[in-house]
Specification:
The protein is an alpha/beta fold. The chain has three domains: 288 residues, FAD/NAD(P)-binding domain (3-Layer(bba) Sandwich), CATH 3.50.50.60; 102 residues, Alpha-Beta Complex (Flavocytochrome C3, Chain A, domain 1); 93 residues, Fumarate reductase/succinate dehydrogenase flavoprotein-like, C-terminal domain (Methane Monooxygenase Hydroxylase, Chain G, domain 1). Helix content is 36%, strand content 15%. The chain contains 15 helices and 16 strands. Helix 13 packs parallel to helix 15. It is globular, with a radius of gyration of 22 Å. The structure holds flavin-adenine dinucleotide. Flavin-adenine dinucleotide (FAD) binds next to helix 1, helix 2, helix 5, strand 6 and helix 12.
Length: 530
């Protein structure tokens, strides 16, 4: 007889900071299964260098942090959410410390705080320049000690199981019963049933040709929620990090913003400093302004990159403060204590995502979203540096507390759920089509929907993405699924959502900049909701 599918209290897709932090909080109320698409530590969280923002010093105030967040968000942050997150952040930092994460200290004076672009104060807690890795490993270790938490690797959520599919006569919004999940090693699709399903699947940098993100950042959670009918918001606000290492063999390596906080300046090949022409804060201006300035200078000079220069700083201090960047650059023959680092902007962080409230609730009953995949109202039109790790902990905590109250009132739904139907699909023998479409979407997005946009280019991109989507859907329906094909289907949908949102916003605000509407317009002082 066939075994019945696993039934879990909390099914969490994602083993980054959001998923792991949620699990550690929710395990007090029930059993948690965490799915990771690849290895448990293949995440954006592992890659975070700079740190996590929180008011912890006596010379800083909540009001300062709130104001800096609102200023970066260019009018679209939800003030109530910003206040809630900023004032809760110190408690979440304490939780991280309880889970075993160590932040650098400054003798006995407290934390060694860094300053990053857009922050009026030093308030970034860090573990050298490998904060994300320290958090990732610390949280995984804590989860392994907890008998109520199970982490399963190589499991890719494909789509939600919705009661409406099982019972088409149901009236009202759908309820999530769990998810169909691809075991990426056996290529079988497994049914997982859950009381609550939580999407913590991270960002979508892979929609673009150049990105600081890891290879699995394909916006799966957003695509899954959208296909199920949930609203998504603010997808045009994709932040480009100004400084990724420019080297033919360096893939996705970011040069932390904290380096500019420590006095590094952006220069042209001839040594000329250029940021002071663009913003009074010079190289410490907010990210969107720095990324656009670099884009403009590269177009003006026809060069492939600009340079970040920290050679004026004491070499020993640089090596101690930025050991990760120092070692990595040295591997590529660049000694950052002696020569400027070649850098280019790259797609980095998605401010938009699945629309949620302060406990992570979505439009689909029993479906929650936390971390970078969610749009909570904290970031508005532009994220303040290092607010994202903080956001993930705050909303994971809120979500777990809320579900802790709900669990005793929420039974498993007794519906007969059928297994995934592979149909009469055959194995794809033309993977070249998938590889080609991957490349085409990412190039199209980089060239037509990048740092500086125009209506004409966006319309061209929209037309092209529709054609590609038809092709991909045909492929999806005709062939047995695998990770590459599923991710391609997801980035195609993400691309469409970004293009539609960018076309709707006929103004320039925060990270969204269009040549046709270069000014802000109060008529667009609202979220873009699809
Ligand atoms: C290079 C870099 C540097 C950064 N530096 C900072 C910083 O200094 N400070 C800061 O605040 N933020 C920083 N960020 C942003 C921050 O790291 C992320 O926003 C944050 O880590 C996101 O956490 P998350 O848990 O939402 O997602 P992630 O950490 O990306 O985890 C996503 C998880 O979802 C899983 N997953 C994805 N799709 C599926 C699927 N279909 N099925 C099952 N599982 C799936 C993945 O396997 C992974 O486990 C940086 C980002 C990058 C890329």
């Amino acid at each position: 007889m066939k075994a019945s599918p696993p039934r879990i209290d909390f099914l969490v897709a994602g083993s980054g900071i959001a998923g792991l932090f949620f699990a550690l909080k929710a395990s007090a109320f029930g059993k948690v299964t965490i799915l990771a698409k690849g290895k448990a530590d293949s995440t954006a969280t592992s890659m975070a260098q700079g740190g996590i923002a929180s008011v912890t010093s006596a010379s800083d105030t909540f009001e300062n942090h709130i104001q800096d967040t609102l200023t970066a968000g260019a009018g679209l942050c939800h003030r109530d959410i910003v206040e809630m997150a900023v004032t809760q952040a110190p408690d979440r930092i304490q939780d991280l410390i309880t889970y075993g994460i160590k932040f650098d200290r400054n003798g006995s004076d407290g934390f060694d705080l860094a300053r990053e672009g857009g922050h009026s104060q030093k308030r970034i807690l860090h573990s050298f320049d490998q904060t994300g890795n320290a958090i990732q490993q610390g949280l995984i270790h804590a989860c392994h000690q907890d008998p109520n938490i199970n982490i399963v690797e190589n499991q890719m959520a494909v789509d939600l199981i919705l009661d409406k599919k099982v019972n088409p006569n149901k009236i009202g919004s759908p309820t999530a019963l769990g998810a169909y999940v691809l075991d990426t090693q056996s290529n079988q699709v497994i049914t997982y049933l859950a009381r609550f399903t939580i999407l913590a699947t991270g960002g979508a940098g892979k929609v673009y040709l150049y990105t600081s993100n890891w290879d699995g950042a394909t916006g799966d959670g957003i695509a899954i929620a959208r296909r199920a009918g949930a609203r998504v918001a603010n997808m045009e606000f994709l932040q480009f990090h100004p400084t990724c290492l420019y080297h033919p063999h360096a893939r996705n390596f970011l040069i932390t913003e904290a380096m500019r906080g420590e006095g590094a300046t952006l220069k042209l090949e001839n040594g000329e400093e250029f940021m002071s022409k663009y913003h009074p804060l010079g190289s410490l201006a907010p990210r969107d302004i720095v990324a656009r300035a670099i884009d403009a200078e590269m177009k003006k000079t026809g060069k492939d990159c600009v340079f970040l220069d920290i050679t004026q700083k004491n070499p020993e201090e640089t090596r101690q403060r930025f050991p990760g960047v120092y070692d990595r650059c040295l591997k590529f023959g660049i000694d950052i204590t002696k020569q400027p680092i070649p850098v280019v902007p790259a797609a980095h962080y998605l401010c938009g995502g699945i629309l949620t409230d302060k406990v992570g609730r979505t439009d689909i009953s029993r479906l929650f979203a936390i971390g970078e995949t969610a749009c909570t109202g904290l970031h508005g039109a532009n994220r303040l540096a290092s607010n994202s790790l903080m956001e993930a902990t705050v909303f994971a905590h809120n979500c777990a507390q809320y579900l802790g109250e709900q669990i005793s009132k929420t039974d498993f739904l007794n519906l007969l759920v059928s297994d995934w139907d592979p149909g009469d699909t055959t194995n794809p023998d033309e993977m070249i089509v998938v590889a080609h479409n991957w490349d085409e979407i990412r190039r199209l997005m980089w060239n037509y929907v990048g740092i500086v946009r125009s209506t004409k280019r966006l319309e061209r991109a929209k037309h092209r993405i529709r054609v590609l989507q038809d092709e991909i859907n045909e492929y999806y329906l005709n062939y047995r699924v695998n990770r590459d094909l599923l991710e391609l289907r997801n980035i195609a949908l993400l691309a469409e959502l970004i293009i539609d949102s960018a076309l709707w916003r006929k103004e320039s605000r925060g990270i969204h900049y269009t040549l046709d509407y270069p000014e802000q317009n109060v008529a667009y002082l609202k979220d873009t909701i699809i």
